[in-house]
Write a structure and sequence with these properties.
single chain, mainly alpha, two-stranded antiparallel ribbon, 2 strands, 63% helix, globular
Length: 268
């Protein structure tokens, strides 16, 4: 019995990153903001459903813009009962928007004292990522330095194709959707911005300038490559959801590269 135990193959232990109390607090804050956004979306849908039942259709194209809000305030509803419901719905929408604004301000105030503040600043140089989305992504994923390669991060996010193999047959299908769904959704939402040509707008210019030079180069390389990739896949007739998922997978690689650049540039 002793011989069999001594000859057994040693166990391989995988390191697990454990967030500290401050990181858990940041995660709760970003998730509260996400819940507030979902709540606002539901309240807006209630308003639009009521107007649809009343036969009121907005003549413009973009809903919930400044012009749309003016159109809402100008609606005259005949029955007082429905008018009360409509006014209460608009009040709920305004309160939900104010709640989101408060939570976003709290995130901005908390980031400078966070251990991942430097990575947040660097990620803001990427198109599609701002302070709130970068903070939410890092709050869900944590320290990216634990991923040895970009491929590991892609697999953790569930952005790699699933595989069903039997014998000599290998069948690949959609992405695995493993790992953190919130972080994956943030990258997918950011990936839609890469359908536009590479450029740095006036609002984005200060965020890019705040990042190190090496990070700026990675961010611009991501814009050039992902835009070309987005359009190439679209020309091949791929569905938009398939295209944006493929872009999100490559975007995670650039995010990993930026995190690694920040980690290597820190003094020992």
């Amino acid at each position: 019995m002793e011989r069999s135990l001594n000859s057994a193959r040693p166990l391989t232990v995988t390191a697990v990153w454990v967030p500290d109390a401050r990181h858990e607090a940041m995660r709760d804050l970003t998730r509260a903001r996400e819940a507030a956004v979902d709540d606002l979306r539901g309240k807006r849908q209630q308003v639009m459903s009521l107007l649809l039942r009343l036969g009121r259709r907005y003549p413009g194209k973009r809903t919930w813009s400044k012009a749309y809000m003016g159109w809402l305030l100008g609606q005259k509803i005949e029955h007082p009962e429905q008018r009360i419901v409509f006014e209460e719905m608009l009040l709920a929408v305004r309160q939900a928007r104010e709640r989101i604004a408060r939570l976003e301000q709290a995130i901005r105030a908390a980031v400078p004292d966070w251990s991942l503040a430097e990575v947040v600043t660097a990620l803001m140089a990427m198109r599609g990522l701002d302070l709130v989305s970068a903070s939410a992504f890092l709050a869900e994923i944590g320290d990216l330095s634990r991923f040895r390669t970009a491929r590991e991060l892609m697999g953790y996010l569930g952005l790699v194709p699933s595989e069903h193999s039997t014998g000599d047959k290998v069948k690949r299908s959609g992405i695995t959707k493993a790992g953190n769904r919130r972080a994956r959704r943030i990258l997918v939402e950011c990936s839609w911005s890469y359908r536009h040509p590479p450029r740095v707008g006036k609002e984005k210019l200060a965020k890019v300038a705040a990042a190190p030079r090496a990070v700026q180069e990675i961010a611009w390389k991501a814009q050039s490559r992902l835009c070309a990739r987005f359009r190439a896949l679209a020309r091949r007739g791929k569905r938009p959801t398939v295209v944006v998922t493929a872009i999100a997978r490559e975007l995670s690689g650039f995010v990993w590269a930026i995190s690694r650049e920040v980690a290597t540039s820190r003094p020992a």
